[in-house]
Amino acid sequence: MAEERSLHSVPPSALAILIVGLCAQGLWHQLRPPPEARAAALPSPPSAGSLALWALGDPEALARLLMLWLQAHDNQPGISLPFKDLDYDKVVGWLGRILDLDPRAQYPLLAAARLYGEVPDEAKQRVVLEFVYRRFLEDPDRRWPWLAHGVFVARHRLHDQRMALRFAEALARYATGPEVPHWVQQMRIFVLADVGDVEAARLLIRALLDSGRITDPHEIRFLSERLKSMQTPSPDPPPARP
Amino acid sequence: MPPVLTIAAFTMREAQRNRILWLLGIVVVSSFGLSELVGEVAITEASETKSALLAGFLRFFSVFLVALFVTTSVVRDFNDKVLESILSLPFPRSVYYFGKLIGFLALAIFVALTIAAGLLLYATPFQVAIWVASLMCELIIVSTVGLVCTFSFHHLTTAFSAVFGFYILARMIGAIELMGTSPLVPAGKPSQEIVNAVVSGIAFVLPDLYRFTQSRWLMYEGVAWADLVPIAGQTAVYLVLLIGVGLFDLYRKNL
């Protein structure tokens, strides 16, 4: 037996309804206003309690989901928002909540340091750097790369040597695990030299070399040369032209 | 009573026997409790948070409930030979179709009105009236799509999956269209042109469900009856189209 009957078995009224419906839908589709792109403002982060509730016992999965959502917030359907238009207090609030959900994740701090921290707005860069600094102190041996980047941003972008020195000293003091490379501790030396405290930098290099913790010959040679250059008085500047 | 209304009444009675009203009541009360709990942990805008969560969840649940009932009811008619029994009577096939459709639409309206009672705790009657009127339109479309899909697929799993796929796609299609015109998408590339054409083709046959039943109508002031005009228009147009497709399919079936 055939699955379908012939078209003649369909009453003309049913066919008419189908054709009218199809034409009306086509007309409606043409006349409707196009979908409207609306920039949705970043909401305030919810409390840790409500996030724990929505995590359904799997906070790491929710953290990853929220991170992707937050990261994609600048690229909403039909509209692209520059990072500098985002409310950075809220951004940092969300990053903090995500980090609370999954403290071992590096993603929120990477996004803070390398994504949101790259915005050409000094005040917003400072908000992000202070966030990275605060959260570094909770787990220095794991989170040192992001504060090390913070030292670079403070030193070369913000030209705030005090901030760079504070970050570098925190790195030297707290990031002392076996996995942390030596240059992280050495950052303090170069920042000290930058702020003009050559004597302190020189003492630090000497102490580092004497401690025996540095075994790589290239690293020892580099630090020795650096120490020597600090001991050699810099040549006098050329006389100004009349 | 005209046979159309008899079939509609039996469809409603079937919903009653399936304990759908109990299920609806239990879910409305329990979701109310859950939204109260979540709202309590909100730092600010607790009432708005509660209404948004409750409205979002109940909208999704009502679509799920109506779609599941429509598909199971028609599949049962196929399996129990109810359809053949009715078609053996001296009525045109359209009587069965419209009888079932009226029964499902009545259920959809009943579900929407029951949900409205819960929402009155968080929003003004005017806001709830507009939101629920839009939900009725949404459920009318979903139940009619359910009828069409079940006539086409005959099996519960495929029919229900098709209805839900349709619903999700119709809710997302506005955002998908916008993504195609995003400034980040390279314009002029042939692959992109093809994708945009496919998306436009899909959007052509889908209703604008992404404009329906917005939670913000319950949360903020500024909603007006005029907001319902395009929704009612789209519902009327799409209902005619779906009735045409459903009748065409039913008349061509060799039962």
Distance between the termini of chain A: 110 Å
Order of helices and strands of chain A: HHHEEHHHHHHHH
What does the largest sheet of chain A look like? Answer: 2 strands, antiparallel
Shape assignment of chain A: elongated
- Count of helical segments of chain B? 10
Secondary structure: number of strands of chain A: 2
In percent terms, what proportion of residues of chain A is strand? under 5%
Give the mean pLDDT of chain B.
88
Q: Which two protein chains have the largest interface (Cβ within 8 Å of the partner's Cβ), and how many residues from each?
A: A-B, 38 and 40 residues
Helix proportion of chain A: 55-70%
Mean pLDDT of chain A: 81
By secondary-structure content and strand pairing, the structural class of chain B works out as: mainly alpha
Shape of chain B: globular
Counting DSSP H or I runs of 4 or more residues, the number of helices of chain A is: 11
Q: Could you tell me the number of beta strands of chain B?
A: 0
Rg of chain A, alpha carbons: 30 Å
Report the C-alpha radius of gyration of chain B, rounded: 20 Å
Determine the fraction of residues in helical runs of chain B and give it as a percent range.
over 70%
| Unreliable stretches covering 5 or more consecutive residues of chain B | none
What's the multimeric state? heterodimer
**What is the distance, rounded to the nearest whole angstrom, between the alpha carbons of the first and last residues of chain B?**
26 Å
Describe the structure.
The complex is a heterodimer of chains A (242) and B (255). Chain A has a domain at 42-171. Chain A is built from eleven helices and two strands, in the order H-H-H-E-E-H-H-H-H-H-H-H-H. In chain A, strands 1-2 form a two-stranded antiparallel sheet. Chain A has 242 residues and is mainly alpha-helical. Chain A is 63% helix and 2% strand. Chain B is mainly alpha-helical and 255 residues long. Chain B has one domain (3-252). Chain B has helices at 3-17, 20-41, 46-79, 82-87, 93-119, 125-153, 156-180, 190-205, 216-219, 228-252. The A-B interface holds A 1-7, 9-11, 14-15, 17-22, 24-26, 28-29, 32, 34-35, 37, 44, 46-47, 49-50, 53, 75, 77-80 and B 37-38, 41-44, 92, 94, 174-179, 181-184, 203-205, 208, 210, 230, 233-234, 237-238, 240-245, 247-248, 251-254.
